[in-house]
Fold this protein.
Amino acid sequence: MPIANKFNDYARWERLKTPFATGLSLRFPEATVLEVIKKLEDLQIPLPENNRQYLSATDGALMFSNSHGVVIRIEQSNGKGYNSASRSDDSAWMLQPLGSLEAGNAVIEICPGVEFEERDVESRKLYWKMWGDGFQYWDDRIDNAGRLPFKSPEFPEGVPVVIDRLAVNRLTDSIAPVKRALKVMLGPMSDNFRSPLRDPKVKLRDVLSEFRQMAREITAKIVRHGMSSGMAMGADNPQEILYGDLRRSFTQAFPEGRNAPPDAKKMTAFWQAVLLAKEAGKLVTGWKDTADKHAAKSRRARDMAEGYDAHPHRIGEIGEDVALKNKVLQQLQDFRAGNGQRGGETQDSRGTWRRFREITTTPQDGGETLTMKMPDPDFRQPPVELESVCGITGISGGYTYPYGLKPAEIESYADVLQHSFLRGDIDAGERGNMVQEVFALLEKKNPALSAIDFDRQDADRMQAVLKGIARGWNARDIGFSLSAEGQGVMQSPGYQELARKTMLPGEEGTWRPAPETMTLIARKMQDKAEASVAITAKAGAAPA
């Protein structure tokens, strides 16, 4: 069966069991949740691993990124959400996303981070700015308002914007209903009226004076049939000046349109541009700086951002990881299907087999039969075990395995490719390209692997390297094993003596450390023994 490059649906269904997917399923049907998961991976946004990495919202979920200074919003897009039917992109007083993507009944938006508003009076002024554009800022809480990092004579502290577009309703274009609504809004019993009881720091006469002046201004605009707030959506708009380049970069990542998967390299370029914009001060983590003096909503955003920071994968760096994970899972799945699932084996929720199966492959040319158990029931990481047993460090490779892949899975993947090649399912070029892709990703995560000197076009050698990495061998040991192969070095008396002194029983054949590594082990063990003797001697010399 040919190797499939498409996303593994089985793996995606498994992700419905995560807390993040479970939370989304309370607001969206399963088909939409699956589509959201797929689109987030397309956007190179890591999926939250637990409920401390995202914030449940009225209409979906939010993730806050301290590293990139953005908020990822997932909301209803079909008008069935709390206020999703009123979502608008045509007011300069509302914060607009850097990019958005439909996913079933949901919309995923990447929104710029801004400063949170701290002054209640300024938030009320924003209410009237919105009214001037034909919108009712009905949920005008202070934590729904923010300020762009763009200062002007009129706004020396930054241009105010509504940061939650679902806090806004579009007003009717009819003058009479608008005038009636205005009258209600100015009434002392209105929920939007900020009395001293609701805001002790504001004097009643100041509130009344401010409202009367705003009422005169907005009434004059209504009478003249002019609803403009004085800031248009054109090139001079602060949001276009700050974020126009980022929005164009996002659009360029979808050369075939938003309904097709994005170009992975261009999406990575978009996220790199986002990082540069954050460094330039255009994207601001307002939830970090104002949380302590703000409402509970802001404090929760700060906590969730800290949780998301703990994610093992960064935004913009998971595209290749996802591709590798999908290829591994798909190839393992294809391999099982191609062998008729002999033995009736099943998979658990982690994607590993509940019991091992022996597979025999006979090459097409009638050569030597190859037998393999997959995954290998004898799989071990001897350098890691030695460090644990002896209490030392710096012997194993200490590798980062991408996207949660287990080392045994990486080794199995290399074995699967070898078997697929021998069966004739893939040719030598395909096998070579695939093992090279895996190594390139591991090398990116673990730069020390660049020191290994070997022919990267040789699929057999590349497979040996991948197996060494999976088993935890450091780069020096892998290089030594490749260069010493067939040279008789490991049969020499000197090497055998070093091995006898430093290796744990049963490691023979599962690990071929370089002489330098064994010397390092001996030195570390000697240092540990001397330290232990010194501590014992000191304890014995202490006065009773």
Q: What stands out?
A: The chain has a mean pLDDT of 75. The chain is about 45% helix and 10% strand. The two ends are 76 Å apart (CA to CA).
